[in-house]
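Request: Mind sharing a record?
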Amino acid sequence: MRILVTDGNSRSTLAITRSLGQAGHEVIVTSKAPKSIAACSRYCHEHHTYPDPALSRAEFVDSLVSLVEQLKIDVLLPVTDVCVLPVAEQRQRFEALCHLPLPAADSLDRAADKQAITTLAAELGVATPVSLTVAEPGQLDIDSLQIPYPVVLKPARSRVRTAEGWLYTGVDYADSARSLKRKLDGIPAAAYPVLLQERVSGPGIGLFYCFDNGRPVASFAHRRLREKPPSGGVSVLRESVPLNPQAHEYSLKLLGALNWHGVAMVEFKLDERDNTPKLMEINGRFWGSLQLAIDAGVDFPAILVRIASGETVAPIEQYRYGVRSRWLWGDVDLLLMFLLKSREELQLPAGHPNRLISILTVLCPWVPGQKLEILRLGDIKPWLHESLNWFRR
């Protein structure tokens, strides 16, 4: 089959390209740049560019429709949010030309809204951190806040479309009323509503799924061993683990309520106080650590293509535990953070190992069961591309 994948500079796109190319499919990688990490792979059949979707969704969609038609694409796999959402909104144009294994646009939109998902979780009995929504600037009476410090600040959406373009938001922390006021005042009005949540201490666990029109087909879980930044961010070292039964039940409730179709990640923190998984967010797309799932035996890209082509796939429930995946240059970034920033600047939670232990842990070159995410001896060019870009920064 001829499969077009977007976001060529995404690590998940590289994992998709390798997976499907090894399975014998012709993988056409696309991106907004003339060079990309996935396009360097030996499993990339062709590479094409499109207009930046963050600047013009309409031009991006028109260009992608044209590519799908000209290249006679069988399956289209948009990868990151900035591509997934515009494609889902125009799905009729794409489905007239190819298979598109995405949920409905309103399901994607709801999953991307942390406020909406927190409300849905409460309705379904899914545990979440203690939360409060600040709908607009100046609304909160900080002195009456009942959430203990440190407080987590989460704009409801990670990306907000404005008249000037896309506004990217992130998670922040406040350890006092004064700090909270200052940080709320610094959030643009367009980024509201903002969720205030208690900070949950404990390991992060990710549960990953592939659904076929509301039916769970494949599931996988990993635990985060290291993150960049260490206060909470993208995982740079992770390990495959059994599904946490409670988190799995919560995830099936949430994705079932959204009538999910395709892939999704549901992220939790395992609260060290009572060992309860607390919902953090849902990502309705492929995730950055996708290669780990493939290495452990759950080939999500191949499964999704089988579903897209109309095959009824039997549930896949077994995979290897204890497989580790390390994003090497992400880990180097983490090492530099520990070397150059103080504990306060890193906003580390209570109980986090001290700087020396953290540095020595990152410097450990290898442990049994560990694989490098990008560096593969049979397909080395993507790692060379990434390394060159890292040194150019």
The first helix runs from residue 11 to 22.
